[in-house]
Amino acid sequence: MIGAVVLAVALPSLQQTNPPAANVEASATPSATPTETASATAQVGTETLPPTPKPTPTGTPAPLPSEPTAQSVEVKTPSPKPAATPIPTPDPAMWRIEGTVVDEAGSPLEAVCVVVGPRGCQPYSPHTDENGHYFLDVAHSAITTSFDFYFEMPGYKTVWWNMAPNGPTVFNVVLRKG
Question: How far apart are CA 123 and CA 112, in angstroms?
Answer without folding.
Answer: 12
